[in-house]
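2024-03-11 09:14:02 DEBUG pipeline.ingest accepted 1 chain
2024-03-11 09:14:02 DEBUG pipeline.ingest length=113
2024-03-11 09:14:03 DEBUG pipeline.predict start
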Amino acid sequence: MGGTLLDPEQAGPDDVVLCWEGREVVAVRLPHLSASLDGILADLERRHGKPLAELDRKTKQRVVRNLETRGAFSLRHGVETVAAALGVSRFTIYNYLNRESSAARTAEPGEPL
């Protein structure tokens, strides 16, 4: 997730303080969500072994599905960021997302998408 561990006394209002047996032991500072999206995209490139823009259409669609499940498109400029990384337009991202929701609505119960 890219969090930073801190002494509990250094914790800010947005940090998560973890307790063990009633005692604060560590604070975790999580990165801003936009930085997390950049990290997720970089990780996907490493996993695929090439820039995301070089992936075939089907693989790009799977990437978009995966990112949607992870909440990437609820971020401000999430669609634009992902579109730039995949080398496609925002319109294409919306088409991928709409295609998936249409398939989910027409699939029979228990039928794989």
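2024-03-11 09:14:41 DEBUG pipeline.report The chain has a mean pLDDT of 86.
2024-03-11 09:14:41 DEBUG pipeline.predict end
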